[in-house]
Amino acid sequence: MDRLKAMQVFVQVVDTGGFTRAADVLHLPKATVTTLVQSLEAHLGVKLLHRTTRRVRLTAEGAAYYERCIPLLADLEEAESAVSIGRASPRGRLRVDVGSSFGRELLVPALPEFFELFPHLRLDLGCSDRAVDLIEEGVDCVVRGGHQPDSALVAKRLGTVHFVICAAPAYLAGKPPAEHPQDLRKHDCVNYFSARTGRTLEWAFARDGERVVLVPEAKVAVNDGDAYCAAGLAGLGIIKAPEHLVRRSLAEGSLVQVLHTWRVDPVPLYVMYARDRHLSAKVRVFVEWVGEVFARSYPPAADPALARAKPAAVAA
């Protein structure tokens, strides 16, 4: 028996909650995963896992062994990276999940640079706005915006996402001007609801000491950034969109800004990873690199939404 391989497989079974999921993550046949764990139990002379048809859970001995395995495997990965190809060039498979729009607009276009810097890494990139369970799904880190209540994760702030209130010219034609956030109640809007909580997100504005927070009435609400911007481009109403998603449309004139004298509350963007895990070299270099990618798109001192967008010419 390959004791190291068996240990790695055992940890993955625990992390993902089952043999089938562990086999998928490790790209191994399920029978191989089962055999390795059984061989490890036979070698140790103890039962590590309670198995039922619906779930897998640790025995007391399994829990103690798992806690010892985590730092050992992490230290081994670090040592191999440092000795074989240097700490700046880690190897292995990295599993990352990012918001769909962030992946399409900012991350994926920058990936050639990432692989030039780290040619020995392989990336499994999930692009979605859904909630991701890092431990259960075997994901190394995620990039998400907004308040992050999960204390089990380390959240490193990448920067700030700015928003633009905008709409298609075809929608705005003949509509009353929107000069105050309350004027949105006279318009069709498109809302966004969280894929994690189902809550519809608020629109918050500030100007000259006045603050307005509201949730506009909307015929359409979506939970995906790309679909949200598509709804605005289709003329379904006014949207509150991340600037990086609409900068091209604003420049081309297919979207125009409204309420340009009001500041829209920005939201922080974080890269997050499990708190109780050793930060491996491959996760560390990705966290540092994705921070640099975001900083290039959003310089800290700039408010790109106000700098790039132009006010709409709206007929009274």
List its salient traits.
5-stranded mixed beta sheet, Arc Repressor Mutant, subunit A, disordered C terminus, D-Maltodextrin-Binding Protein, domain 2, 3-stranded antiparallel beta sheet, 11 helices, 3 domains, elongated, 316 residues, alpha+beta
How is this structure best described in words?
A hairpin with a 4-residue loop joins β1 and β2. The radius of gyration is 24 Å and the shape is elongated. The strands form five sheets. Strands 4-3-5-15-6 form a five-stranded mixed beta sheet, with helices on one face. A three-stranded antiparallel beta sheet has the order 12-7-13. A three-stranded antiparallel beta sheet has the order 10-9-14, with no helix packed on it. By secondary structure, the chain is α+β, with helices and mostly antiparallel strands. The C terminus is likely disordered. The protein has three domains: about 80 residues, Winged helix-like DNA-binding domain superfamily/Winged helix DNA-binding domain (Arc Repressor Mutant, subunit A); about 100 residues, D-Maltodextrin-Binding Protein, domain 2; about 110 residues, D-Maltodextrin-Binding Protein, domain 2 (3-Layer(aba) Sandwich). It is built from eleven helices and 15 strands. The termini are far apart. Helix content is about 40%, strand content about 25%.
**Quick one: biggest sheet?**
5 strands, mixed
Rounded average pLDDT: 84
Provide the number of structural domains.
3
* Radius of gyration, CA atoms, in whole angstroms: 24 Å
Class based on secondary structure composition and strand pairing: alpha+beta
**Termini separation (Å)?**
78 Å
**What's the order of the H and E elements?**
HHHEEHEHEHEEEHEEEEHEHEEEHH
CATH domain class name of the largest domain = Alpha Beta
Total number of beta strands: 15
DSSP strand (E) fraction? 15-25%
Strands of the biggest beta sheet: in what spatial order?
4-3-5-15-6
- Helix run count: 11
Amount of helix: 40-55%
* CATH-defined architecture of the largest domain: 3-Layer(aba) Sandwich
Kindly report the CATH topology of the largest domain: D-Maltodextrin-Binding Protein, domain 2
CATH superfamily of the largest domain: Periplasmic binding protein-like II
Low-confidence stretches: 301-316
Choose one word for the global shape.
elongated
